[in-house]
Each structure stands twice: as structure tokens, then as C-alpha cells.
Amino acid sequence: MKKIELYFLIDCPHCQKAFGLLKDALIAEPKYKSLRFELIEEELSPALAEERDYYYVPCFFLDGKKVHEGKITERDINKILKDAYKE
Q1: How many CB atoms lie within 10 A of CB 81?
Q2: Are 77 and 35 in contact (CB under 8 A)?
């Protein structure tokens, strides 16, 4: 399984939507609860945020590779989780 890094801003409405979609997806597919997540609030961890190449939040990385940036949908979340779960 791949590690999921999620860069976000606490006041960002798109980030709040991403968290809601993640919660729903984890409830719908319990197997995804075994995935490893690292949540990085960019204002609290500016040094970590500077290490990554992105402009918009939420921004998802799988094992260090950017897989999604910006406004997100349920379909996007499901793809990220599915790709992270692959062995």
C-alpha cells in the first residue's frame, strides 16, 4: 500500500469537502481504513509544504508523487484510495 499525503488549509472549503468525501469513502469501504495517511496543514508545517511542488489545496500525493490538486469530487477521492490500496 502507498502512503497518502494530503496538503490542506483548515479554512479552505475544498479541503473541508475533501475531508467529508474521505470520511464517507472510509465508511463505505472499510478496507481503506488500513491505508496510511499523513495530513499536512500547510500553515502549520510550511517547511513540509515547501518541499512539494503544488499550488492549490487540497493536494494529494501517493508515495511522493502528486496525483490530485485543487477542487475534488467523490470520483477523485475513490480513485486516489483505490490507487493507494493497490499492492
Answers
A1: 21
A2: no
What is the architecture of the domain spanning 3-85?
Answer: 3-Layer(aba) Sandwich (3.40)
> Cα–Cα distances in Å, from 42 out to 27, 69, 86?
26, 14, 28
For residue 64, give the DSSP letter: T
The pTM is what?
Answer: 0.92
What is the tens place of the pLDDT at every residue in 16-64?
999 999 999 999 999 999 999 999 999 999 898 888 999 999 999 999 9
State the Cα–Cα distance between residues 72 and 42, nearest whole angstrom. 18
CB neighbours of 73 closer than 8 A, spacing ≥ 6?
A: 21
| Burial (Cβ within 10 Å: 0-12, 13-18, ≥19) of residue 17 | middle
